[in-house]
Amino acid sequence: MTSKLPLVLIVIFILLSLISIFNINSLTGYQIAEQGNLCTSTEGNVGIGTTTPQEKLTVVGKVETTEGVKFSDGTIQTSAVQQSLPSGWTEDAVGNKIILTNTGRNIGIGTSIPEVALHITQNIEIPNFIGDNNQGLRITGTNVNDKWVLLGFDGGQGKNLAQIGSKQTSAGSYLSFGTSNNYGTGITNEAMTIDPSGKVKIGSLDTSVQLVARTSSTNYAAFILGNTYGLYSSGSAFGIVGQSQQYAALFQNLQNTGNYCYFGAPNYALWCSGNAYATTFSQTSDAKLKENIYYIDSSLDIIKKLKPATFDYINGNKNQAGFIAQDVKEVIPSAISETNEGYLSLNSENILAHTVKAVQELTEENKKLKQEIEALKNY
Fold it and tell me: Do the domain assignments include residue 287?
């Protein structure tokens, strides 16, 4: 009995030494060696730097390896940087471009069955176009005024053959469409630009126009350039071209800007500058359309006061015969009217009526003279 005591003391001493060296403690489900900071759970998880490993190996802290990590497929990863891209993808020499080289491959965003080269599906309903809609496809550029953010279309020439661009300025945002007539130099034309107010500049126009505008609750125009309207409608009225909403239509000879006609001009159904030609001019004269009818008693004295003249139009025909409106106004005021531009115009119908009456008077006087002559002959 006394001979075995030293042996027992030796075993107890060894166990106490191990506990002292490894400081092994007992936790429910875990065995922990604090000096080595190693933990093994009863589920078979191993933790380094943690007492609660959740995976087969959980490490809190840095891990150093000299030969890499071997995966189940046999590949060995020696660097944190991916060594190879998936099949069909390549990287350029600089390392700043990743390219999908396999033809026939489609990329899907929001869809697992892309049907085209880039197929984006957005299953979000956006009720309003206006406002801060943080949805959809977005191309973001630098937040600097007067710099463009571009979406280009390359036909295989290595340069954009067409492009859509957006530019922010202090006045607001612009949207432009560019085209090219020389593929070697890229975009050559700013084909169309929409300014912050919604007006459109097409080609080399110096001024933006509104292609479609609602000028009031009942008036519409297909385009507006300043105060000049294109296809213009107001209620039941419709015009081809108008200016300041005054004219229903304008027809102009492009070779001679002095010749033009307005339809629906203020105070006139037809207003022309230059020569007007027709095989027949007719004027409505039905009594059912008139009132305050008085027949002229005498016009001979009026006609005698008129001053027929010859003249040249400054910007028109030369060697003309007729009347000066200011002269006629002193004799027959009703024959003269004034345009919006301040020019006097002459209604020849008024002069014609007085002329006919004057001829009738002369005819009657001539008849009386003939009777008097015959009476003298028979005396």
Answer: no
